[in-house]
Amino acid sequence: VMLDLGMSPNMKDARVLNPLYYGVAHDTDPIITEMLLQERAFIGCKDEQDWFEIHHACKQGLLQHLEHLLFYGADMDVQNSGGNTALHICALNNQESCLRVLLFRGANKDIENYQNQTAYQVAIISGNQEIAHILQEHKSEEIVQYREIPKYSMRRRDSVASAAMFALSRSRSDPRINLIMSDNGHNRFISPSSST
Known about the structure:
Elements: H1 19-25, H2 30-38, H3 53-60, H4 63-71, H5 86-93, H6 96-105, H7 119-126, H8 129-137, H9 159-173, E1 179-183, E2 186-190
Antiparallel strand pairs: 1-2
Helix pairs in contact: 1-2, 1-3, 2-4, 3-4, 3-5, 4-6, 5-6, 5-7, 6-8, 7-8
């Protein structure tokens, strides 16, 4: 409802976290995650421990949330304050389905955390032998990238386009704002009073 009334999916609270972050961290319905992503929610909010949305999805085994995040471009190799990637989190928390999706989509299994441990080593230390076996046996030839293009709502525009449109509309109403237009590599100064 709030999105329908024009609220931005990128509103941030005092912790500088957006609704997408909270939706994943608190295991809301995956349809809400998908809706926020379709409305161009910013992916990549992190908390005080540098935990991103993808870390929370993997810790809790939220497979649908994870798939939505990856499809809309989440960085699957981003590290938290301990240097752990989403694969490390899966290995630590015995989240096999999330681990398989990450590997299938191309997560780098060779990244070390700040204790110089790969996800495989974290799985061994944590006693998650099946996870360790999956990591050890995974081959790069098994990676399949997304071929589809994410679908975005037409209600919202990218922030750059919105800012440009705002500047253009303001230039006609505010004589103090002037535009510089590029014409085949040559910049032209346009005064609002001379534009029609």
